[in-house]
Design brief:
- This protein is an alpha/beta fold.
- The chain folds into 2 domains: 211 residues, Zn peptidases (Aminopeptidase, 3-Layer(aba) Sandwich), CATH 3.40.630; 104 residues, no CATH class.
- 19% of the residues lie in helices and 27% in strands.
- Strands 1, 2, 3, 4, 5, 6, 7, 8, 9, 13, 16 and 17 form a 12-stranded mixed sheet that branches. The protein has a 5-stranded mixed sheet with strand order 10-11-12-15-14.
- Strand 14 and strand 15 form a beta hairpin.
- The longest helix is centred in the middle third of the chain and has 14 residues.
- It is globular, with a radius of gyration of 20 Å.
């Protein structure tokens, strides 16, 4: 797979760009693009949008805020406009592309170009804007628990944070130890509040002269323990979908349980032909037996669980995972 066309770099805001919908950015830009906008304070903030092409609320919220600051920005901004080709197709990523949020450690393709392009920048903060896949509340994703990163998470009005160690190839991980960073899940694209959430957050961020410290106590904070996958060789579908030949028939209703504590014995679905879901911990070790078992053809939790990011989107499941399992911090 390839990461995409070479990164384009632009100084200043091209006239008319803020009127361009995500679906037509590729016509304007032709490639992933790093914009540099000048402001009163010179220490820049790096903002990333559209690493997944169908997650458009970050771009739309950013456009609102930049229009509001048309007479002058409070500080310099570096804006990464990511997978414009996938955005034109309305998909997360194209079949021949790498996932743009999995190219940062080790850096490859545009990931390497972006990191080289900002290597000498004294960044105040890094903020990566996404939409949720599946029914999840808005939340902040942290790849470190430094005071600065916690403060970025606390600026978000969701009050919920998730600390992840895996995958470790996401954009925010690339800035660990260098600049406070956070990824924001804004809610599904169809959520009418997703764009206002992005705009409110960016307005708060731009208003900061410096980044105060934050504390874990300021958030409802979780840690991811593992990711759940259907085996690559297994066929799967969801309750009410498919036929009896599927190896795994999963419970579509589980999506409504994201971020809720579930008891031991809760059922994830049905298993046939010797298959089960596979659970990998943060070190990529198989820990299926700790969390799930197949009993009388049913996939059952062996201990209390908190799922997150459970999705019924089969393409996303194959590209990423069915869900994460979490514990409160």
């Amino acid at each position: 797979m390839t990461a995409a066309a070479a990164l384009r770099r632009i100084e200043g805001l091209p006239p008319g760009l803020l009127d361009v919908d995500a679906s037509t950015l590729n016509d304007w830009l032709g490639a992933p693009t790093l914009l540099r906008l000048k402001g009163r304070e010179r220490t820049p903030i790096l903002i990333s949008v559209l690493l997944h092409g169908n997650e458009t609320s970050g771009w739309d919220g950013l456009r609102q805020v930049l229009r509001h600051h048309a007479t002058g920005l409070p500080r310099d901004l570096l804006i990464l406009i990511g997978n414009v080709e996938a955005a034109a197709a309305g998909v997360r990523t194209l079949p021949d592309q790498a996932d743009f949020n999995r190219i940062w450690r080790p850096a490859s393709g545009i990931g390497a170009e972006v990191l080289a392009g900002v290597a000498d920048e004294p960044l105040l903060a890094v903020v990566d804007l996404h939409n949720n896949t599946g029914q999840n509340p808005p939340y902040a994703v942290l790849t470190d628990l430094s005071p600065g990163s916690l403060r970025l998470a606390c600026l978000y009005d969701s009050g919920v944070g998730v600390f992840i160690e895996e995958p470790d190839t996401v954009l925010t991980r690339a800035f660990a130890g260098r600049a406070p960073s956070v990824a924001l899940e804004l809610g599904p694209v169809a959520d009418a509040q997703a764009i206002p959430r992005a705009a409110r957050y960016l307005n708060r961020l731009f208003a900061l002269g410096e980044l105060p410290t934050g504390r874990m106590d300021d958030l409802r904070l979780f840690r991811t323990l593992a990711r759940v996958h259907p085996p690559a060789e297994a066929t799967f579908g969801f309750s009410g979908i498919g036929d009896g030949s599927l190896d795994l028939v999963l419970d579509a209703g589980m999506e409504a349980s994201n971020f809720h504590a579930l008891p031991a014995g809760v059922e994830f679905g049905a298993a046939r032909n010797g298959f089960n879901l596979r659970v990998l911990d943060n070190q990529h070790q198989d820990v299926t037996d700790r969390f799930l078992e197949v009993r009388d053809g049913r996939i059952l939790a062996t201990e209390p669980l908190i799922p997150a990011m459970y999705t019924t989107d089969e393409k996303v499941i194959r590209q990423d995972c069915l869900c994460y399992l979490m514990a409160p911090i």
